[in-house]
Amino acid sequence: MPRAAVIGLGRFGMELAKQLAASRVEVLAIDQRIELIDEIKEAVDVAVCMDSTDKQALASQDIDTLDVCIVAIGENFENALLTTVLVKKLGVKRLLVRAQTTTHAEIFDQIGVDEVIRPELQAGQHIARRLANPQLEDVLIFQKGFALIEVRPPQDFIGKTPRILGLREEFNVNLVAIKREIDTEKQNFSTSVPSADDEIAESDILVLVGSDQALKALPTD
C-alpha cells in the first residue's frame, strides 16, 4: 500500500488527504490546528497535531520512510518554505509542494522539489480547456507542454477508424485507448486499446496523448 504524508490541512490539503485515504493510500495528516486534526482523524491512518517547522517533531514521524510527502500549506509561505526545506533534508522519496504564486513556485523549484502544485491555476486551466472544447471530458498534464485528454469524438471522427483518420500523421496525436459505453443509464464504460480498424462510435470517449499545441488543433465539433 502506498504511504503518503499531507502537511497542512486547509481546504486543499484536507480534501487531498481524504481522497488519498479513500483511494487506499496510507495517509499521515499533519497540521498544528487541533480542530482540523479532529475533523480528519477518522478518515486517515494517522493524524498528528504538531508544528511542521519543528525539525525534531517532523523527524519523529519517519517522513523519510514514506513514498511521497505533500506540503499543502498555502496561507503561510514562510512556514511552507521552512517545512519544505526540513522535509527535503529528511530525505523523503518524493516531495510535492503547493505554491500560491509564480514567485513561490520558482523558489520551490530552486530548492529542488519534485513537483510544484498550483491548484487554483491548474483548476482554471482545466475549466478553460473544457469550456473551449465542449467534447473534452478530462485532462491530465504529465509533462510541461504535453497532456493526456479524454474527449468525445468530433463529428468528423464518428464511424471512422484510427487507420482512416491517421491521427498521428494528420494531427500529431496518439490514440492510446477508447472508453466505450456499456451501460447508458449508469454511464459505465469499458476501456480497451484500439486496433487500427476499430470504428469510433458517437458515445465513445477517446484517450489521446500529444503536445498542447497538437491537442488544441483537434476538431471540436
Describe this structure in words.
This protein is α/β, with parallel strands linked by helices and 221 residues long. It folds into two domains: 3-117, Rossmann fold (3-Layer(aba) Sandwich), CATH 3.40.50; 122-216, Alpha-Beta Plaits (2-Layer Sandwich). Helix content is 34%, strand content 28%. A six-stranded parallel sheet has the order 3-2-1-4-5-6, with helices on both faces. Strands 7-8-11-9-10 form a five-stranded antiparallel sheet. A hairpin with a 4-residue loop joins β9 and β10. It is elongated and about 60 Å long. The model has no long low-confidence stretch (mean pLDDT 86).
Report the uncertain regions. Answer: none
Number of domains: 2
Main beta sheet: strand number and arrangement? Answer: 6 strands, parallel
For the CA atoms, what is the radius of gyration?
21 Å
Secondary-structure element string = EHEHEHEHEHEHEEHHEEEH
Level-2 CATH architecture of the largest domain: 3-Layer(aba) Sandwich
The CATH homologous superfamily of the largest domain corresponds to NAD(P)-binding Rossmann-like Domain
C-alpha geometry:
elongated
> Biggest sheet, strands in spatial order?
3-2-1-4-5-6
Count of helical segments? 9
Strand content: 25-35%
- Mean pLDDT level: 86
And the CATH topology of the largest domain? Rossmann fold
Helix content: 25-40%
Distance between the termini: 43 Å
